[in-house]
Amino acid sequence: MQEASQQTAAVGHYIYAIIPDQGRRSLGNIGLEETEVYTMGDGRVAAVVSDLNSARIRPQRRNMAAHQEVLKQLLRDLTPLPAAFGLVADDDAAISKILKDNRTAFLDQLARVNDGVEMGLRMTWDVPNIFEFFVGAHPELQELRDDYFRDGGNLTQDQMITLGRSFERLLEQDREKYTEQVEAVMRSCCRELKRNKCRTEKEIMNLACLVNRADLERFEQAVLQAARPFDNNYAFDFNGPWAPHNFVEMDIRL
């Protein structure tokens, strides 16, 4: 990082992250609207900010990309506490108040994620039709389905509800079983694991993993180990490293 240039007048300060205060620094003109990103600190913690020419920040792709780029640059040297997109403070005094009011919480969370990065790990059913796959994998579901279709007619509404509930119950049971199986392996190289909500019916798990930087290779090996018992009907993919969004709780009131 380079020494920051003189701050100019602005509508407000856009906040990207909180980091340990290491003196006033600049990351260059990589912020929203290609503005300079720099730090404002109190000696213990610092806000990573850029000046705004407008009080309204739209969640446009270029703005969100700039936000992520700042976090990416920060992550090269340290582990930041990432702020949610769209957080704006009115002026220098507002930044100072945020740092003062939240200093203890910020320091505790910085210690929690220190030298760590977030990795995402997803597991999915890689099959054309998830219901038919479950019919083949669970005899009780196949028996129920075949019983309902034995006469060749259409299902009644009650039958459709019963069949759907049986499928959902088995889906959740398998998700829980497989997630616990994978978590048991991943705990060997992860400081913390957090389950996120599955976004599609075929998704089995969506894990956020807090991993030491030095353990990223171990993380990849653990993913391979966790995937080994599963056949080609299951797919694993991981992504990262990211700033630890899922392991940070920043309730900043402006």
Automatic annotation (TrEMBL):
GO terms (BP aspect): gas vesicle organization
Source organism, top-level taxon: Bacteria
Cellular-component GO terms for this entry: gas vesicle
Major site of localization recorded for this protein: other
Compartments, record wording: Gas vesicle
Keywords: Gas vesicle
Record-annotated membrane-spanning stretches: none
Any matching Pfam family: GvpL_GvpF
PANTHER family found in the cross-reference section: PROTEIN GVPL 2 (PTHR36852)
Family: Belongs to the gas vesicle GvpF/GvpL family.
Identification of the protein by name: Gas vesicle protein GvpFL
Organism: Candidatus Thiodictyon syntrophicum
